[in-house]
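Researcher: Go.
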Amino acid sequence: MTVRLEEAALAYDVHTAHIPTDPVDLADVFTVPLTPPLQPPLPNQHPTPVAVLLQRAHNRLATEGWCNGALVDAQGARCLYGAIRAEAGGDQSLESRGLEILTDAIRRKFGDIDSVPSFNDAWGNDRPPMRMLDQAADLADTRVL
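Model: Structure:
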């Protein structure tokens, strides 16, 4: 197959050698914006306060990063509890209801767990914790919380 491809490339070069071409300036071909456009914020899909809190926590982790072993790491990434706490904005009642719904969602999927931080720290990547935030937001919306 390699021999056939080499012969085809040589035949192409021979057959097109008589065609005059101008060199192409790649600056004329490729243009990109100097700064990337900002992504629009994700719309709130849920109308209930706890569901919105959990969805905002998910969005925060998606944009600022997820970590385990700390509430907030040196780069500003947060754990599940840290994201919910930050999004609750000091409202202890909203924070505790969000953590309660998240705990219920985790227990439905993984059985008995000690706490949200222990669940968070059990993972090496953000996929399961982020998925549980989504499921908890859906659960809170279903319960109209």
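Model: Residues 49-142 form one domain.
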